[in-house]
Automatic annotation (TrEMBL), chains A, B:
One of its GO terms (molecular function) is carbon-sulfur lyase activity. Keywords: Pyridoxal phosphate. This is Alliinase C-terminal domain-containing protein. Signal peptide: none annotated. It comes from the Eukaryota. Belongs to the alliinase family. The keyword Cell membrane does not apply. Residues 15-382 form the Alliinase C-terminal domain. InterPro entries: Alliinase_C, Alliinase_N_sf, Ethylene_sulfur-biosynth, PyrdxlP-dep_Trfase, PyrdxlP-dep_Trfase_major, PyrdxlP-dep_Trfase_small. GO terms for biological process: amino acid metabolic process.
């Protein structure tokens, strides 16, 4: 093996493990800590639901969700329903269930055709596996939205914006009459992308994993316009996991409160504005990554338009949490297989995102600084004239 | 409405909300509390996995699971795999997936017949809804195991022991050649039933909801003999929720450690032995409930054999967390509909458990004392000679 490149050195690189935020939270101090006495949170039911449609939702959590969106300006929550989930992955399934199941609990008609679920390439690599996990008769993965044969039948299009893996702002591409839309807005936060307007769609998914960096807490939320859809999503989560960890909901509320307050008064937080912290690191990493790419010519990176960001009050471009690398080397058949086979290291090649394994690889920019530097160092050893690669 | 009876006055009664344990944990003090600083648990990956097959399992959690089982003597964990789940409900689905899915990720053959999942009546009311939630082509609810037509084809039998709702110790009833077994042992703990031997089955499910009372934490675990099954269960949970809340795993570990220690040294814990606390309350509640039943004759209760309990070192009978009431009134068509329709209160009638709504109702004995007393007071107003019930 002559050249090691385009891969994750650590398993976590592949998942976008958001450990770069640890440094911020170490500085943030007590305001972000939570103490849970042994006698708290025993019940299945919320300490205070506040009359929410989602019966297992803690009011404190939904209050902080609304305050955070209000302060960031990235989503409309007024007159919307909040549904909490075990990460946005569970909420994605809840939305599929809500959009495809009938109202009749006793409907055992298994003959109907599953509804197609599509998303534009390159799409988030987990969508196909999650959608087809149980081989449901309600829905099935239909692949690339650009190639979807719209026959005026119902379908679901997942719009991931900014898109994972390539960071671009997305709109629906099918635009068929029978289309139902799920917006996955996990990365629509100021550290990653310009906040141009409050998103306002029927079903929007968010997660603390990417907004605050607390992936291990496994908490996400959906903002839903239609009460019936919110109720069906709640039903899915009730049946599949009897709600969502209250400990995690309270912890996420504490963390989100700290984020909101960090943006309101610098003096409150030694650590400074949370989103400023994230943006500063990502701007720096993208500069270093683009420098390496420009110098060796072995790969290219997406370009992002300059847009007005309402949150930071400036014209800026996106600095996504992932880099979608296009490989310019001609003698590589399949980067993913090469790396997995020779190095036994997990990597996400383009094929996972509905694209070409030879051409594209996704890497994470959200890891610890030392790991990111190793990645850069290795990428720097590649050159466009490299021709010898033993597979 | 002349008589209000056999129902849950509170929604939580129906789910077996384990709030009677709050009193214990209020006494247990600091040892059962947990402090989580803002910078902890950001990663998707465990702080320390300890080489477990389940990649998102925290070693501290699995260590405490093993110590607790060792101290109680209710399950074998030596040379077994521990899989953590978002409650035992998720682990149940993970087990169904593991026992029915093929090894081929790219297997899109949807033509095969779903495998039947059966359980002996009265079965836990959630099994049918959870099994058929997504109308999977992998498995489907097959109903009462006693009526299952075994054709020497593969099937899954769920053995819930002690059984929810009726508290009896259960064995498999089909005993066919193609049978695969899942043991739901949520209630196999000393506060509910005599611990006669360490359970030792291929797949065993447990949950903190019923063992320690922390339902809101949404954590359960499976003890699995076969590595391949443990890996497939892990895969299911990875895809459906990208693991299990680390905050919840650490909290559950803290709570379980306190339970184990409470049984080892009374001086360590002002609250005393946790299982002794639970048993004392349940023995008392069953006595009071049996007294009401004997006095009015309107309903009967199951009887349990006296068995040797290794944990308490005494001959005792079961005092389950639920009471499975058999209605002796002749003029009631459907207790559940009557109560839901007239009182708008949720209740679980026998039909939910594969039985008769007229004859059977499940009530919880795990609620707060004041609620349990109200239940008793109302049950006491019923008499076997009651004939007038307006529906």
């Amino acid at each position: 093996m002559v050249i090691n490149f385009f891969y994750c050195f650590y398993r976590c690189c592949c998942r976008g493990d958001p450990t770069m935020f640890v440094e911020y939270w170490k500085k943030a101090g007590e305001k972000s800590s939570i103490m849970i006495p042994g006698w708290h949170n025993l019940s299945y039911f919320p300490n205070n639901n506040g009359g929410n449609v989602c019966w297992f939702l803690e009011k404190e959590f939904s209050d902080e969700v609304k305050k955070l969106h209000e302060s960031v300006g990235n989503a409309t929550t007024k007159d919307r329903y909040i549904v909490v989930g075990t990460g946005s992955t569970q909420l994605y399934q809840a939305a599929l269930f809500a959009l495809t199941s009938t109202d009749d609990d006793n409907d055992h008609d298994y003959s109907s055709k599953p509804m197609d679920v599509v998303s534009a390439v390159p799409y988030y690599s987990s969508y196909p596996a999650v959608t087809d996990l149980l081989k449901s008769r309600l829905y099935k993965w239909g692949g690339d939205a650009y190639k979807f044969d719209d026959k005026n039948e119902p379908y679901i299009e997942v719009v991931c914006s900014p898109n994972n893996p390539d960071g671009h702002t997305m709109e629906p591409v099918v635009n068929g009459n029978g289309g139902k839309l799920i917006y996955d807005l996990a990365y629509y936060w100021p550290q990653y992308t310009p906040i141009t307007k409050p998103a306002d769609h029927d079903i929007m998914l968010f997660t603390v994993s990417k907004s605050t960096g607390h992936a291990g807490t496994r908490v996400g939320w959906a903002i839903v316009k239609d009460e019936k859809i919110a109720r069906k999503m709640t039903k899915f989560i009730e049946i599949s996991t009897i709600g969502v960890s209250k400990d995690s909901q309270y912890r996420a509320a504490t963390i989100m409160r700290a984020v909101t307050e960090s943006g309101q008064s610098i003096s409150l937080q030694l650590a400074g504005n949370f989103f400023e912290f994230g943006k500063t690191i990502l701007v720096d990493r993208w500069e270093r990554l683009r420098k390496v790419a420009a110098e060796n010519g072995a790969f290219s990176l997406p370009k992002y338009p300059k847009q007005s960001c309402n949150y930071f009050g400036e014209i800026r471009e996106a600095h996504p949490g992932f880099a979608w690398l296009k490989c310019n080397l001609e003698n590589v058949e399949d980067c993913e297989s090469l790396i997995k086979g020779n190095l036994n290291i997990l990597v996400r090649g383009g094929k996972n995102f509905g694209m070409d394994n030879k051409k594209y690889v996704r890497i994470s920019l959200l890891d610890h600084e030392d790991k990111f530097q190793i990645l850069l160092d290795r990428l720097a050893t590649v050159s466009s004239s490299s021709t010898k690669i033993k597979a």
